[in-house]
Design a protein that fits this description.
The complex is a heterodimer of chains A (about 120) and B (about 110). By secondary structure, chain A is an all-beta fold. Helix content of chain A is about 0%, strand content about 45%. The radius of gyration of chain B is 13 Å and the shape is globular. Chain B is built from no helices and eleven strands. In chain B, strand 4 (about 30-40) and strand 5 (about 45-50) form a beta hairpin. Classes of the chains: A mainly beta (about 120), B mainly beta (about 110).
Chain lengths: ~120, ~110
């Protein structure tokens, strides 16, 4: 079974530029998550999709971050314009979407973003 | 509100020694608890999880954890450390029907030869 795929693995941009990250979840997984992990910290949820609908985006900085999950499969996370504090690893995870919170989330390798 | 506290941001053990990584949770309802491991430049990998049933949970790579409701703890142990166990370990609690994970601060495990 293929795991969660993310691209690119690394990205370096200058502040005020835009950037996009792509995630392909495990086949058949209904739930998709985007986390931000700043160096030395734990992952923080940015947005959660159930199929192609948003379940939780309370921690997403909506003035600069956007995300979509077309057709309930792949997802794209965009930052425009980027700030220095956006430098982090962006992790995508997916799960089957089982109710009750017992689901196991499977993580991709992440995209390391450096904003100069 | 649910939260997780990991005691010790860095733990160092000798190869072959016992590994003990501490995790305490606060939750108003029975929690679902997870341990993940993160190797450098990689994503998170599930070691084990507790949902219901047996309180001693066995995971991959020889790790296990015991859910103790009276102590609100879910400590991770391994009888004998290996050099390949050096990594960052995160304890997490699942919140609500949507399954959002709340992570602890992480513990970096170093293994000395």
């Amino acid at each position: 079974e293929a795991g969660v795929a993310q691209s690119p693995r690394y990205k370096i941009i200058e502040k005020r530029q835009s950037v996009a990250f792509w995630c392909n979840p495990i086949s058949g997984h209904a739930t998709l998550y985007w986390y931000q992990q700043i160096l030395g910290q734990s992952p923080k949820l940015l947005i959660q999709f159930q199929n192609n609908g948003v379940v939780d985006d309370s921690q997403l900085p909506k003035d600069r971050f956007s995300a979509e999950r077309l057709k309930g499969v792949d997802s794209t996370l965009k930052i425009q314009p980027a700030k220095l504090e956006d430098s982090a690893v962006y992790l995508c995870a997916s799960s089957q979407g089982l109710p009750g919170g017992t689901d196991t989330q499977y993580f991709g390798p992440g995209t390391r973003l450096t904003v100069l | 509100a649910q939260s997780v506290t990991q005691l010790g941001s860095h733990v160092s053990v000798s190869e072959g020694a016992l590994v003990l990584l501490r995790c305490n949770y606060s939750s108003s309802v029975p929690p679902y608890l997870f341990w993940y491991v993160q190797y450098p430049n990689q994503g998170l990998q599930l070691l084990l999880k507790y949902t219901t049933g047996a309180t001693l949970v066995k995971g991959i790579n020889g790790f296990e954890a015991e859910f103790k409701k009276s102590e609100t703890s879910f400590h991770l142990t391994k009888p004998s450390a290996h050099m390949s166990d050096a990594a960052e370990y995160f304890c997490a609690v699942s919140r609500g029907q949507g399954g959002k994970l709340i992570f602890g601060q992480g513990t970096e495990l170093s293994v000395k030869p």
